[in-house]
Amino acid sequence: MESLTLEGAALEEMLAHARATHPAECCGAVVTRDGRDAVRRFTNIQDRLHREDPAAYPRTAETAYTPEPRELFAALREGEAPGGSVKAFYHSHSRHGAYFSDEDRARAMFGEEPAYPEVTYVVVSDSRARGEARAFRWDARARDFVEVALEVVGARTRP
Hints:
Blueprint: E1 3-7, H1 8-21, E2 27-33, E3 36-42, H2 46-52, H3 69-80, E4 84-92, H4 102-108, E5 109-110, E6 113-114, E7 120-125, E8 132-139, E9 144-153
Parallel strand pairs: 1-9, 4-7
Antiparallel strand pairs: 2-3, 2-4, 5-6, 7-8, 8-9
């Protein structure tokens, strides 16, 4: 089984982000620079989109997320720099556990192909168990996202 290895401090930062935005979902990326994980928080603009066009964006930030485009592009640029890579995108589920929903899958796709096939998606949640986190990666044979083991290295601290 494939796995995703994250530094404990990075996972705790993701969980802290989820707690800070609750009950809204949070979103962000983990960018690796010279072998170190760096969490990049994105602003969830879902509520603004919902206010501006509720027909096109029927969900609020409590059940959906849309990253602020400039923040997303900055993380992508950082990941493309020498010594860097985008390791994971993450978001939270504030009302349900950490699972990869049909909506999550749809958002991770570009047509029939994954938008970022090399990037792992991490979903965090405190709703079922404090600090729950699960990782999902595109599997070309299955033509779907499948769960992969999440290995945490280094100390985890509780905020």
